[in-house]
Amino acid sequence: MLLPIQNAVVVAKALTGAALLVGLLAMQACAAAAGPVAAKPEGKGLLTATLVANKEAYTLDPAQSGPAFRKQLADLSTSGNMAPPTPAVDLTLRLTNTGNKDLTIPIGGDATQIDLKLAGPGAVTVHNNVMMSMIFRMGKPVTIAPGKDYELKISSLSFGKRNMSEAAYWTEPGDYTLTATFTCRLEDGTLIEAQSTPAKVKVEKAAAPSGQ
Fold first, then answer.
1. pLDDT for 45-89, tens place per residue?
2. pLDDT tens per residue, range 113-152
3. H-helix or E-strand containing 19?
4. Parallel, antiparallel or unpaired: strands 57-59 and 199-204
5. What Å distances lie between residue 195 and 18, 80, 94, 138, 190, CA to CA?
6. Domain range annotation of the chain
7. Which stretch of DSSP H or E encloses residue 15?
8. Using alpha carbons only, how large is the chain's radius of gyration in Å?
9. What is the 8-class DSSP label of residue 101?
10. Which of 4-18, 97-111, 122-136 has the highest mean pLDDT?
């Protein structure tokens, strides 16, 4: 036989369980009435990207060339070392609003990313083992009017998350192409991705020191 206090505890537990069940059924009913949650659409056709090579010829760094350097880059995946400094470049990524109304995009924060694809006779791209803070960076909003441009400067072949998670190198002289992809997420969750056509650059062998 249950004592009065024990009986009260049993009743309270039963009421609590019943309340949870009723709440769960109510939530399921609301979800069913609302229907499936629609995913945010991709912002296709809102933005185009053009990669401009302000400088078309570069000199190959002897210290970052040949099989030995390529092996050093390949070993990064197991050594855990950070990638060496990437070649300096002079590029402009021009973003054009191809829509019919103002487009506000985030610039410089974690909701924005620029990726590069380097192709050529000695092209190597590696993941950079660099530590980053977990703090979400907001960046700044930039509004582009219909038919207008916004330009971003690219000064090195470091790219990806926070312009440092990936690294590209040209390790042999020759003709190369660079393609840029701009990705951002708008405040309403819409994903925008714009890929440029390839820009051409030439990498030349360093001149031999005088007297050799």
1. 789 999 999 999 999 999 999 999 999 999 998 888 899 999 999
2. 999 999 999 999 999 887 667 777 778 999 999 999 999 9
3. helix 4-34
4. parallel
5. 55, 31, 11, 23, 17
6. 1-34, 47-204
7. helix 4-34
8. 27
9. S
10. 97-111
Q: Which two tokens stand for residue 175?
A: 């003709």
Structure token digits, residue 168: 């590209």
Q: 89: exposed, middle or buried (C-beta count within 10 Å: 0-12, 13-18, 19+)?
A: buried
Q: Locate all alpha helices (DSSP H) within 35-75, ordered by sequence.
A: 66-74
Contacts of residue 179, defined as CB under 8 A and 6 or more positions apart, other chains included, come to 51, 116, 117, 119, 195, 196, 197, 198, 199
Task: Kindly report the CATH class assigned to 47-204.
Answer: mainly beta
Contact 206, 61 (CB under 8 A): yes
Closest CA relative to residue 169, chosen from 62, 80, 12: 62
Handedness of CA 28, 32, 33, 36 (dihedral sign): positive
Cα 24 versus chain centre, distance: 39
197: nearest Cα among 90, 57, 49: 49
Ramachandran angles phi, psi of 113, nearest 5°: -150, 140
CA-nearest of 204, 148, 202, 156 to 180 is: 156
Query: Looking at the DSSP assignment, which residues form a beta bridge with residue 178?
Result: 118, 199
pTM passes above 0.90: no
